[in-house]
Write a structure and sequence with these properties.
The protein is an alpha/beta fold. The protein is built from 13 helices and nine strands. Helix 2 links the parallel strand 2 and strand 3. The longest helix has 19 residues.
Length: 307
């Protein structure tokens, strides 16, 4: 049995044993009461045993049936609360009031339908990812809406389901998450919410540790998936500025950051990473002309292309 609350936390997992014990401990220390549901995609490690040992609700699905959108729609269907928080298995709350801060931001105004928190780099994170976290998740909170599109462009709908809270009614009102997407289900919903007059909040005070030190090859694959997502969602995203313009601005800011931190030696690697991202993104845009067997090789989510 679970205690009925106004907040449900949904966490999809797959082979999560590296983080799960710490994550469940951090969630048990939260000041905000919540119902926790783990949706596991047939893990082959000790994930299921850890969840059961901690007496957390566990929903099991087949690995082949996992999708970033449809699996979270399942979580939304299971939640009987007004507010749903989505997290990933490797996003660790930085304090005991992390959840409370996020939900407070969501509840602060009636027009806010989505709130997402600040992602801090893990202590041993390398410089490129540290810059990415600092740039995409700054110290200052902001509420974004349609009026900011001319100023912020595609960043207006930037958000992350690694740590985000939704008002369930607002999520359902825009049709939930796209049910068959390689990634970007959060951005798709954020864009739809903004275009229907809702606001989304970036809550800098709601902090989790979450970062990835991707290799050049992994960056290529990730940006292939981003390009494929942008192609599929082009009708919605066309209301915002093109991602390429934001990407160019990011590269210039990254170069300046490396220079200011006496990391000019890293410039050749930055150029290589930028080339990998751009090439991957462009291939993703034109993915419909690429055979599935090849897409499985150049995508970070190869199982998506098994369909």
């Amino acid at each position: 049995m679970y205690i009925e609350t106004m907040v449900t936390v949904i966490i999809p997992t797959y082979n999560a044993e590296r983080y799960l014990r710490t994550l469940l401990l951090k969630l048990s220390e939260q000041t905000l009461p919540h119902r926790l549901i783990i949706i596991d995609s047939d893990s082959s490690d000790s994930t299921k045993e850890i969840v059961i040992d901690h007496k957390v609700e566990l929903i099991q699905i087949e690995k082949a049936s996992f999708n970033h959108g449809s699996t979270r729609n399942l979580g939304a269907k299971l939640a009987n609360s007004e507010i749903i928080v989505f997290m990933t298995q490797d996003a660790l709350p930085a304090s005991s009031n992390t959840l409370e801060c996020l939900v407070d931001a969501l509840s602060s105004r009636e027009d806010i339908a989505l709130a997402y928190g600040r992602q801090l780099p893990y202590p041993n994170t390398k410089i490129f990812e540290r810059f990415a976290r600092m740039t995409n998740y700054p110290e200052i909170s902001v509420v974004k809406n349609k009026n900011l599109i001319p100023e912020m462009g595609i960043k207006t709908c930037s958000c992350s389901n690694s740590f985000a809270a939704y008002k369930k009614n607002a999520l359902l009102a825009v049709g939930g998450f796209p049910s068959n997407t390689v990634l970007g289900e959060d951005v798709s919903v954020a864009a739809r919410l903004i275009l229907t007059g809702k606001s989304i909040a970036y809550a800098a005070e709601a902090e989790v540790f979450h970062s990835h030190d991707y290799t050049v090859g992994e960056e290529f694959k990730r940006y292939f998936d981003i390009g494929a997502f942008h192609r599929e969602e082009r009708e919605i995203l066309s209301n915002f500025s093109k991602a390429e313009s934001e990407g160019f601005r990011y590269v210039l800011q990254e170069w300046s950051y490396l220079r200011q931190n006496d990391q000019l030696i890293s410039i050749p690697m930055q150029l290589l990473r930028t080339f990998a991202k751009y090439t991957g993104y462009k291939l993703g845009i034109w993915q419909k002309y690429i055979p599935n067997y090849l897409k499985r090789k150049i995508s970070m989510h190869s199982s998506f292309w098994m369909l």
